[in-house]
Q: What sequence folds into this?
């Protein structure tokens, strides 16, 4: 296949923008979604009908289904579906309001689910396709101060792992991309910050675990996403960025050690 058709959510900035441009630059076509359609105008001016701009709020299930159908009708097929839209909620678990928590899960989890569900009938019918879910290092490893965000990414990881097993026989590939720290808008303009409780001031000043201050350029991921898309057997999950693998090796060694230390109690819980 010399040309692929991509559907990318959150294409106005960050990873979504970089990957949209990477696909277009090599001659592929992209249905690119954004909340504000005008943010895609420069790409339309440059690439013409190779890009289909679609206004979409991924929390609107009907709109997500309509957007995917529009892309399929326009291009005739879908080869790569990337669920990238999302944002960060910063705050201790206790600090998140009901609305903040609801909105975070609605966007990061349900938005990803709606687009995935919308794309699957088309991918099943054509017997091919690749769904890529943008998770995070925080989808497999917890940090304090972003607990609800992490919950949303853990949930995406969980349903996506089940999804991969469910759709394998239809010829559909599934990948979780788990980026480390990048200089995207995630922690800046698009972020939501809960009102801080004074009780956590000391904890905030001296956190037991903190994210690295260094942020990589998201444009560096262009070659990586193309490599994943072009792979005959793409990974089920892949880190983007440095430092994630040793961190996870330490984390999972600690988990295994704790399970083993408590195994006698675990076994006793089964009964005779």
A:
């Amino acid at each position: 296949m010399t040309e692929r058709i991509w559907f990318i959510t959150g294409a106005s900035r960050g990873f979504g923008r970089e990957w949209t441009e990477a696909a277009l630059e090599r001659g592929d076509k992209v249905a690119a979604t954004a909340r504000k359609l005008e943010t895609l105008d420069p790409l339309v001016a440059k690439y013409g009908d190779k890009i289909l701009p679609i206004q979409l709020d991924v929390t609107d299930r009907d709109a997500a289904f309509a957007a995917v159908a529009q892309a399929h009708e326009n291009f005739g097929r879908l080869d790569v579906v990337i669920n990238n839209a999302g944002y960060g909620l910063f705050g201790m678990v206790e600090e998140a309001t009901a609305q903040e928590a609801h909105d975070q899960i609605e966007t990061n989890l349900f938005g990803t689910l709606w687009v995935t569900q919308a794309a699957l009938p088309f991918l099943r019918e054509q017997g091919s396709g690749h769904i890529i879910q943008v998770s995070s290092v925080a989808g497999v490893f917890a940090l304090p101060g972003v607990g609800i965000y992490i919950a949303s990414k853990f949930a995406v990881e969980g349903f996506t792992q089940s999804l991969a097993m469910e759709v394998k026989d239809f010829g559909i590939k599934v990948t979780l991309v788990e980026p480390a720290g990048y200089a995207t808008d995630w922690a800046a303009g698009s972020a939501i910050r809960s009102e801080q409780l004074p009780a956590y001031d000391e904890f905030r000043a001296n956190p037991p675990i903190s994210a690295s201050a260094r942020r990589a350029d998201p444009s560096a991921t262009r070659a990586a996403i193309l490599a994943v898309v072009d792979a005959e057997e793409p990974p089920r999950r892949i880190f983007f960025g440095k430092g994630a693998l040793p961190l996870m090796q330490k984390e999972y060694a600690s988990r295994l050690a704790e399970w083993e230390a408590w195994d006698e109690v675990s076994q006793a819980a089964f009964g005779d």
